[in-house]
Amino acid sequence: MTGVLLRPAVRSDADFLFSMASDPEVVRWVGSRKPWSREYFDRRFAQALSATGSHEPDLPRWFIGTTEDSQPVGLLSLVRRSDHHEVGYWVHPDHWGHGCAGELVIHALDHAADLPLAAQVYHANGASRRVLERAGFTLVDDGEPMTYRRRIGSPLPDRAGTNGGVAGRDAAHHGTHQKLVRKPHVDGTDRL
Predict the structure, then answer these.
(1) Residues near 60 by Cβ (< 8 Å), separated by ≥ 6?
(2) What is the pTM of this model?
(3) Pairing between β-strand 85-91 and β-strand 117-121 as defined by DSSP bridges
């Protein structure tokens, strides 16, 4: 895999997303840390689908990360708050350790350029903390969960895995796939 593409979530993504939402290993770092019931998932997914294309506050927008051959690899969630965008991401276990989480976060930078970004991470989730730090987020609250923020105008990591580049920032983003070139992390540090 050479990159993660991004597109808005659609109804046909329900089974893929539920496979992650109901997997204890995937959700062990999410909210209550418990697998989602189908009923709860269906409510959350319906809410996210109704927000597609919306910039209304407090509505989740869900995007699907895919391989170049359209195989889904994970979820990117963006929620616009009053002064920032809240970022969340899940990667399907079949794609752990391949840099997908980092690429999803880079896509978040592209989709939320108008406000700072924030993400919460549990202390024990070192891999996700490293993903955020590589994307230019800084720790602002070390409670449980920890809160990371990224200011508008912070230097972007480039798409090849080094720091400071701006490649890809001017591409057309909304409702289309985007390709990122990645530098593989053979030590598995992006495993969620």
Answers:
(1) 44, 47, 48, 51, 77, 78, 79
(2) 0.78
(3) parallel
